Task: inverse folding
């Protein structure tokens, strides 16, 4: 009985409302929007990435690989298929806005075993149409269209991820090749010292301890090379997969990072970021779809009104089928109102509201993570640039120290230990410099990715207004999205 009263009371309340579309709830407050980014920003850098941001690295080979990835990547192909699926579902939903019309023809003969048979012929058309007086069907259409937008934004997110991963993998291949080259050059230098040591031991100038130490150093440095080469192969294979190619026979031409530039980019205001991140737009569309489902669940409490009609010809002779006297028709209307359903409609409404609350939280979380991504990327770019500067100084001085120690050891002025220490310092510094430079360039990629990679949401597609940060004074408020036409 309580369930019956609950269902009927909710239905009465629903009848008191209108059937028009309602705007999605506003998910963000000014407190959710910082006034400005606080991490270091490179002075004079262009604000916001260009759509072809990867061209800033000045590598024709990288440009070509990214074009291939954006054309042939399988994850991107799957995302494109999901867009087509969402488009088809939207088409299915929109079909409910139109009448359903069918045509039926029949012919039959009836008779007894020894009696005269009779023929009958018919051609009938029928139509049915649900009047969307309360907006339930239109709410379902809005939900499917927002879901379609979400799928398109998800595809943009996959495209951005594939582009960034392709650039990161390509640069990692070059860095590993450069590290192999450094290791081989240090092995060559160590063998040169070993040859000097061996000559000194032969002449009785040095002990066999020095020879054993230098031999061990050579073997240790040689042992690093196979591991680096294997890492290079695995990274190259991963790059081939990103391009939709088999790993076998896939090659990269460049051998090091020497010709790669480090482009710089600066963010605008945080409020502007939210129109440039496909993941934020995707969360926004998902929230709008959930709100349309709330409208549809509300409209389900109202009566459904259906119109039906049929007409056609029926005759016992084919040649008189289309005689005006053979024509018949019928029209009708029906209304259905749920009186008691055990709380089904009420529970469906509760479910729609709960899903909307989940997606409000998800949208806010996506926004906050977008800000954190930019702050972290800006910090990494600044920190790694400073590390690269200092390690370059270390490499320059380590090279000079090793050069002097090798000369002094050859002339007998210093011992082997000093040479070993200076060589190991140089090797470690050179290897670390390559790794830091790779991390520095990849941090640039991370910043481009965090800033949306040059993508921007169409203002007409926006459903969430972006509030102005409480302390923002440098720019005018971000415009609210255009109000969608209400149906009802």
Result:
């Amino acid at each position: 009985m309580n369930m019956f009263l609950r269902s009927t009371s909710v239905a009465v309340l629903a009848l008191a409302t209108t059937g028009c579309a309602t705007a999605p709830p506003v998910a963000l407050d000014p407190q959710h929007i910082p006034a400005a980014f606080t991490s270091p920003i490179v002075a004079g850098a262009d604000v916001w990435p260009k759509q072809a941001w990867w061209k800033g690295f000045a590598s024709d080979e990288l440009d070509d690989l990214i074009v291939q990835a954006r054309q042939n990547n399988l994850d991107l192909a799957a995302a494109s298929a999901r867009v087509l699926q969402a488009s088809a579902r939207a088409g299915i939903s929109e079909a409910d806005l139109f009448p359903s019309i069918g045509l039926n023809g029949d012919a039959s003969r009836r008779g007894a075993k020894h009696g005269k048979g009779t023929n009958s012929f018919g051609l009938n058309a029928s139509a049915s149409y649900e009047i969307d007086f309360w907006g339930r069907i239109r709410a379902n259409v809005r939900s499917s269209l927002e879901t379609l937008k979400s799928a398109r934004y998800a595809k943009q997110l996959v495209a951005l991820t594939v582009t960034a991963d392709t650039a990161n993998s390509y640069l990692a291949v070059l860095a590993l090749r450069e590290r192999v080259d450094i290791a081989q050059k240090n092995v060559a230098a160590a063998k040169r010292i070993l040859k000097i040591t061996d000559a000194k031991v032969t002449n009785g100038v040095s002990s066999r301890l020095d020879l054993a130490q230098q031999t061990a150093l050579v073997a240790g440095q040689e042992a690093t090379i196979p591991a680096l080469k294997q890492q290079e192969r695995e990274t190259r294979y991963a790059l081939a997969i990103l391009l939709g190619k088999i790993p076998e026979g896939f090659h990269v031409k460049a051998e090091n990072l020497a010709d790669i530039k480090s482009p710089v980019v600066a963010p605008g205001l945080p409020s502007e970021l939210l129109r440039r991140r496909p993941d934020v737009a995707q969360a926004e569309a998902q929230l709008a779809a959930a709100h349309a489902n709330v409208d549809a669940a509300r409209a389900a409490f109202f009566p459904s009104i259906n119109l039906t009609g049929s007409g056609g010809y029926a005759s016992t002779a084919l040649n008189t089928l289309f005689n005006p006297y053979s024509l018949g028709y019928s029209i009708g209307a029906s209304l259905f109102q749920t009186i008691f359903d055990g709380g089904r409609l009420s529970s469906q409404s509760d479910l729609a509201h709960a899903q909307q609350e989940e997606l409000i939280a998800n949208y806010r979380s996506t926004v906050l993570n977008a800000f954190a991504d930019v702050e972290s990327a800006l910090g990494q770019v600044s920190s790694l640039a400073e590390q690269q500067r200092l390690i370059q100084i270390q490499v320059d001085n380590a090279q000079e120290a090793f050069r002097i120690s090798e000369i002094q050891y050859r002339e007998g002025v210093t011992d082997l230990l000093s040479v070993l220490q200076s060589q190991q310092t140089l090797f470690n510094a050179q290897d670390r410099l390559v790794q830091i430079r790779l991390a520095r360039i990849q941090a640039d990629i991370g910043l481009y990715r965090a800033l949306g990679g040059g993508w921007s949401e169409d203002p007409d597609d926006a459903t969430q207004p972006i509030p102005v940060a409480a302390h923002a004074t440098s720019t005018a408020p971000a415009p609210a999205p255009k109000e969608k036409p209400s149906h009802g």
